[in-house]
Amino acid sequence: MKRIVVATVMTASVMCANAITDRLVEEIIETSPQVEALKSKLRAETANSLTTNNLNDPEVEFEHQWGMKGIGNKWGVSVSQGFDWPGTYPARSSAAKLMRKASQSSFDSELSELRLKVKLSLIDLCHANRDAALLDSIKSSLTQLLDKYRTSFDKGETTILDVKKIEIELLGVTRQLNEAIIAREAIVGELRAVNPGFGWENTLSLDQYPAEDGVRTEAEYAEILRQNDNQSRYLNNMKELSLANAKVERNSRMPGFSVGYRYDYELGERFNGLSVGVTLPLFSNRNKVKAAMDEADSYQSAMVSRNTALEAEWNAMRQQAIRLGEECEQYERILTTSDTQRLLKMALDGGEISLLDYLQETAYFKQAQRDYIATEHEMHTVLAKLNRYNPD
């Protein structure tokens, strides 16, 4: 199978203890209250489907009539059971099975959405941790530099302006670090809301992205979506259910029957007999077949529309993932081949650059590193969405 390699950096986290894995995602959601709610909903819908093909309740009647004086009273008891047209029951049984399939597809779809939501939140957390770690490192370097220049100022070896320049730059980095920490706490809050009882202590330090598949061809993604998109499967099941309901309604237009036993007592005489009735559904089922067929057409249209939209969305994400992967490779080549912070510090200590140049260059490379971190985060976000339906 032909694949396009996106970036070498994405495979570095496979063996890292702080990496995002599919197993971690499953551990988070398997005890989530949201999943329990989805399971309860599925059980309720499954139980409800079993009630759609029952016989009508038997009917018991008692009547008593008072006669004229000297004649006596008259009374009777009857028990009857109603039946729909025989073809209705297998049609309802088929519809009930399709109802359960649709409920399962809906459950799978919602579970898949929750799984993706958790994975994307973990990727966001990883980005926030990386960004905060970078800013904290720069803050630490600036703090050390500020201490050095304050000492030099006390000795009369530098000016107060140099000290103020470092203080201003340190203040800006501190503000950016605080913003990164606040963003991280918001992500942690979202994750805790999914599963408050999960042991998050060992998870909140994640700093390695998940190992993702490479980018596949457009034809491969089209086939993956056709086979594995739960929402499309749900729409197809609902279409089949509507067609099955149309068949139920066609059978319901046929006559129904009732059979019963009757006992009467009149003038001292006892009468036993059978009763047979026929129900003619002349009014109750009007337009129901057409309504079911129209509903099936609507699900078919929704399925075609979704498939078209998904194919376009996946092709766009595919191109985006390739572009982001190339950008990450370029950032990695430029930023990881040398320690810019150390080189700048050496140049400053050696008198090759001024303090202002050092601060400007530090800010420049800091922003470049943050852009790299942000691009890498965006790439893994796109890959998580793009490969969410890939077979294991």
Structure description:
It contains nine helices and six strands. By secondary structure, the chain is of the alpha+beta class. It has a single domain (3-56, 106-254, 289-386), classed as Outer membrane efflux proteins (OEP) (Up-down Bundle), CATH 1.20.1600. Strand 5 and strand 6 (269-279) form a beta hairpin. Helix 4 (160-194) runs parallel beside helix 9 (355-386). The longest helix has 67 residues, at 88-154. Residues 1-16 have low confidence and may be disordered.
Compact summary:
Helices cover 64% and strands 11% of the residues.
Give the helix/strand layout.
Elements: E1 3-4, H1 22-30, H2 33-49, E2 59-65, E3 74-83, H3 88-154, H4 160-194, E4 215-216, H5 218-228, H6 230-252, E5 256-266, E6 269-279, H7 288-335, H8 340-349, H9 355-386
Antiparallel strand pairs: 1-4, 2-3, 3-5, 5-6
Please give a handful of descriptors for the protein shown.
392 residues, 4-stranded antiparallel β-sheet, 11% strand
CATH topology: Outer membrane efflux proteins (OEP)
* N to C succession of SSEs: EHHEEHHEHHEEHHH
Overall pLDDT level: 85
What Rg is obtained from the alpha carbons, in whole angstroms? 36 Å
Helicity range of the residues? 55-70%
User: What can be said about the biggest beta sheet?
Assistant: 4 strands, antiparallel
Number of helices: 9
Q: What is the C-level CATH assignment?
A: Mainly Alpha
> What's the multimeric state?
single chain
